[in-house]
Amino acid sequence: MRQSAFVFVSANDDIVFEEFDGDFVILDLQSGEYHAVEGSAAILWKLLMDGICPKAILDEFEAHPKLTVNQIEEYITNLVENGLIKESDQLAVAGLSEDDKASLLALTAAPKTDLFSDLSDLILADPIHDVDEEAGWPVRKPQ
Amino acid sequence: MKLSVLMPAYNSAAYIEAALQSLLRQREAVAMEIIVVNDGSTDGTGDILRGMARRFDEIKLIETKNGGVTRARNIALRHVATDSDLISFLDSDDLSPPGRFERDIQFFRSDLNLDLVYSTMRLFETMDEIQLAPKENTEILDVRGIHLGAGLYRTSFIRSLGGFDEGFEQAEDTDFLLRILESLPTYQLSDEIGYFYRKHETSLTQNKSVVAREFSRALLKSAKRRKALGPDFQMPQGFFDITAFIHARKWT
Fold first, then answer.
1. DSSP state letter for B189
2. What residue segments make up the domains of chain B, in order of their start?
3. Per-residue confidence (pLDDT) for residue B207, from 0 to 100
4. Could you give the number of structural domains in chain A?
5. B138 in reach of chain A (CB within 8 A)
6. How many beta carbons lie within 10 A of that of residue B180, not counting itself?
7. Strand-pair partners of A114
8. Does position A140 have pLDDT exceeding 50, yes or no?
9. Does B208 contact chain A (CB < 8 Å)?
10. A122 and B CB contact within 8 Å
C-alpha cells in the first residue's frame, strides 16, 4: 500500500457513494451496509476517488505535525479490506494540488468511517434498487 | 377516534377521485378528515377537488402555489384538526384498501402507548374501477417497503417529530421514517395490505439519480443525528421486508 502508485477505484458496481458538502455516504447495495464518511476520512476518500494514488497521499504524512503514515495507511487498507475500494491496473496520472496538500497538512484527527449495518432492510428495500429501468417494476437483486 | 389522512396533490386529475373515494368508503368505520393540498396543479385536479370538497364534509381542501411535495405535506400537517387522534397518508394516485383503517385502528384501541402500525403495501399497475383495488389478474407485488402511507400513526407522535425536512427534493419520506425509527417508537408491524401503490410511468420515483442521491442524503443526516444517540444505539429491526417479493410471473 505504502508505495502503490496505482489509482484505487470502487471495489465493484454495488459500492456507490455520494458527496454532500464534503461528507460522503458510501452504500453497499449488496449487503445493505452504509458508511458515513466525514472529516479526515472524507478528504482521503475524495482524493482516492479523484485518482490520487496512496503513495502520493502517504508521502504527505512523513513529516505531518499530527498524524502518522501508519494511521493513514491503516485507514486505506481498511477501505480495501472492507470491500469498498480496490487497486486498479491504471497508474495514477493526477498529483496532489497545493490546496490538497494544505488540506492534508491541516488534518488533526485520525480518519475513520462510521459503519451502519442495522438499516440493511431499509437500504435493500430502497428506491435505488426498486425500479428496474427495463422491467419498470421493483426487482430484487439476486443474492 | 378521529383520523386525519394527508394527501398532497399535483396534476393528478386521472387518479385523485378514485384515491379520495377509496378513503371515503371507510368513513363509516372512523371519523375522518381528508386534508388535500392542491400544490398548484395545472390540469383538472383543482376542479375535481373543489367539486368533491363541496360534496363531502370530510375533505378539507387547501390550495397553494406549486412548492413541491415536501412543503405540501407540511402544509397538510399544519391543518390537522386539534382533536385528531391518528394520522395517515395517501398519495393522490394511490388507493386505500377497504377495511384498512377499521382493522389497524384496533391496535391503537388496545394499546394506548402505541405510536404506529406499519403495514404491507401492494404495488399494482391496473385498477378495478368498481372495486377501487388492483384489477384481478393484474401483476402485483407485496412488500413492506418505504412509504409513509404504509403507516398509521398516533397524531401526538407525528407532531413530536417536527414535520418534514423541506431541504429534501425527494426522499423526505425516507428521512421522516428514519427519524421515526431513531425515536424508538412503540410499533406494530402488519402483514396485512394497508396500501395500494399504483406503479405508472409518470411516477415521481422515475428519476432514479435524484432519488438515489436524496436517499443517500437522508442516510447521512441520520448518521449525524445518531452520534448524539451513542454508540450502542440500534435501529428497530425487521421494519422493512422485501423477502415477500411474490406472485408476479416476472419474478418467479
1. E
2. 2-251
3. 64
4. 1
5. no
6. 22
7. A36
8. no
9. yes
10. yes
Would you call B169 an interface residue with chain A, using a CB distance cutoff of 8 Å? no
Q: Looking at residue B40, what is its pLDDT? A: 96
Nearest to A36 among B141, B223, B241 (CB): B223
Closest B-chain CA to A143: B243
Q: Residue type at B249?
A: R
Chain-chain contact of B234 with A118 (C-beta, under 8 angstroms) = yes
Tell me what pLDDT residue A30 has: 85
Phi, psi of B223 (to 5 degrees): -60, -40
- ipTM score over 0.90, yes or no: no
Candidates A72, A69, A17, A88; CA nearest to A46 is: A17
- The architecture in CATH of the region B2-251 reads Alpha-Beta Complex (3.90)
Mean pLDDT of A100-118: 93
Range of the domain at A52: 6-130
- Tell me the shortest Cα–Cα distance from A112 to chain B, in angstroms: 14
> Is A58 in contact with A2 (CB distance < 8 Å)?
yes
Nearest to A118 among B141, B237, B245 (CB): B237
Write the secondary structure of chain A as one string of H (helix), E (strand) and C (coil).
CCCCCEEEEECCCCEEEEEECCEEEEEECCCCCEEEECHHHHHHHHHHHCCCCHHHHHHCCCCCCCCCHHHHHHHHHHHHHCCCEEEEEEECCCCCCHHHHHHHHCCCCCCCEEEECCCHHHHHCCHHHHCCCCCCCCCCCCC
Place of cell 424508538: B184
Least reliable range by pLDDT among B125-134, B181-190, B202-211: B202-211
pLDDT in tens, A6-56: 999 999 988 989 999 999 999 988 888 999 999 999 999 999 999 999 999
Look at residue B83 in the predicted model and tell me its pLDDT: 98
d(CA B155, CA B104) in angstroms, rounded, equals 14
Instruction: Indicate whether A139 belongs to any domain.
Output: no
B206 touches chain A (CB under 8 A): yes
